[in-house]
Structure formats: structure tokens, C-alpha cells
Write a structure and sequence with these properties.
The chain is α/β, with parallel strands linked by helices. The chain is built from 9 helices and 10 strands. Strands 5, 6, 7, 8, 9 and 10 form a 6-stranded mixed sheet that branches.
């Protein structure tokens, strides 16, 4: 079995189900395997190609182009819009690469952690309103699986409904929304860049009009926290989110 992953999420899934040794080419991270791109994928003679089609989190790929390049390969597009679909992708990839049992075991374990975390959420009270900023210039509120995660963790997401794409918001609109909590998680940013962008936000003249800023209820995340990468580590991000939303003492992950 020969697998090419043109999405970091595909590599994360292979790692979780014990399939990294099947990887013959990749783009993205981690860097242990030889880099690949659409022009040389055919030379790798893959049995399975993993793609992403969510332009808000990863570089999208054209499935039809790869169908023409590698007509015999099975092509899976990973485009989850909820944490449940993220878990389903483990099973889909496992079935495609012949690791069904390992994928099922991994999925069951992750699902158990997800529900265990949810058990710490009080479903009978209205949680804080939460704005998740995935870009600061312009201000963009994270969509897809993020709003559903916020809701499941006990918060009330500001911006897109679960499954919807990201939305742009002006500073005035954010002030009117008056979020109780704010998460700053620039897409693809390392810890240093995340903190630099957070400092930029805090220097804005309108920033201190936000309830979250006034109460210091702002979390600055980087991609390692895995809220904006729809793979197995999203469950770790969800566990952190439950703690942060339900315990105001826990503010900053980076």
C-alpha cells in the first residue's frame, strides 16, 4: 500500500492509526517524508491519495486533476464540518489504506475522550459568548467545525453557525457582539507569530471596549493546540476548550 497525503491532516490521521510507514509522499508537515506536489504524484504510483478541500484551513486540491494523473488511485477528500465528521474521517482513511481495525480503535478512543470532556459541561446554564478569531487583518471568525466545538464545550459562538464557513467582521461589529471570551488563533501561525498578532490586537484603540478584554478572558493559541487542524489532535483541543470555557482561570495556552 502506497499513500500520498497532500494535507497535513491526512498525515495526522495516518500517524494515529499506525500508518505512517505507508506514506511515500506528502506536502505539509511533518518533514520526515519526501516532499511531493501534483506534478510528481503520478511518479510515486500511489494506491491512495489524501486531499483537503477546506480552503480556510489548508491548501485545497483539485480532485479531478488527480483523477486524471492517477486513474487507478483511490482519492479521499477530507472536508469535515464538525468534530463528528473529523472522527468519521479516521474510519474512512483506515478503510482506504487497509487499517480498518486500527482506525476503529483510534476512533472509539477519541470519541470516548470527547464525551468524557462533554460530561464536564453544565447543559442547564447559558455559557459565555465566545469569538474565535482565525485572522486579525481583516477580523475573521472561525467557522466549519469550530462553532460546533464551542457549543459542545458550553459556550455560545459568535459568528458562523456550526458547519458554515468563516465570516468577516468589523471592529464595530465585534464590539456590538460583546464577546465574553475571545480566542486568537491565526491559521498556520507559530507561537511567536500568534503572540505578535495578539499584541497587535491589544494595541488597537477599540480593543478595550470588548468585555473579554476588560476581564482578561482572552486565549492566544497556535496551530499546535489543534483547534484549526481537523485531525485526531482536535480532541485535545476540545478538552482544553471545555476547561477554558468552564474555568476562567485558564486563559492562555501558548
Amino acid at each position: 500500500m502506497r499513500v500520498v497525503s497532500l494535507t497535513p491532516t491526512g498525515i495526522d490521521i495516518l500517524d494515529a492509526i499506525g500508518g505512517l510507514d505507508l506514506l511515500v509522499g506528502q506536502s505539509g508537515t511533518p518533514p520526515e517524508c519526501p516532499d511531493s506536489n501534483p506534478l510528481n504524484v503520478r511518479q510515486l504510483d500511489p494506491d491512495v491519495i489524501l486531499l483537503a478541500s477546506n480552503p480556510e484551513s489548508e491548501n485545497p486540491a483539485d480532485k479531478h486533476a488527480f483523477e486524471g494523473l492517477c486513474p487507478d488511485a483511490k482519492i479521499l477528500t477530507l472536508a469535515p464540518s464538525s468534530i463528528e465528521e473529523v472522527l468519521d474521517d479516521l474510519v474512512r482513511v483506515g478503510e482506504a489504506v487497509g487499517l480498518e481495525s486500527a482506525a476503529a480503535t483510534a476512533m472509539v478512543g477519541l470519541r470516548a475522550r470527547y464525551w468524557d470532556a462533554r460530561n464536564h459541561v453544565n447543559a442547564f446554564i447559558d455559557g459565555p459568548t465566545v469569538a474565535v478569531l482565525c485572522c486579525i487583518e481583516p477580523l475573521r471568525l472561525a467557522g466549519r467545525w469550530i462553532p460546533g466545538m464551542v457549543t459542545a464545550a458550553g459556550g455560545q459562538p459568535i459568528g458562523p453557525c456550526p458547519g458554515e464557513p468563516t465570516t468577516t467582521m468589523t471592529a464595530s461589529e465585534l464590539i456590538m457582539a460583546a464577546p465574553d471570551r475571545i480566542i486568537v488563533m491565526p491559521i498556520g501561525a507559530d507561537p511567536t507569530t500568534s503572540r505578535e498578532q495578539a499584541r497587535h490586537l491589544r494595541a488597537m484603540p477599540w480593543w478595550h471596549n470588548l468585555p473579554a478584554a476588560q476581564s482578561d478572558s482572552v486565549a492566544v493559541l497556535d496551530e499546535l493546540v489543534a483547534l484549526n487542524r481537523p485531525g485526531p489532535e482536535l480532541i485535545s483541543g476540545f478538552e482544553w476548550l471545555v476547561t477554558w470555557i468552564n474555568n476562567p482561570v485558564v486563559r492562555d495556552q501558548t
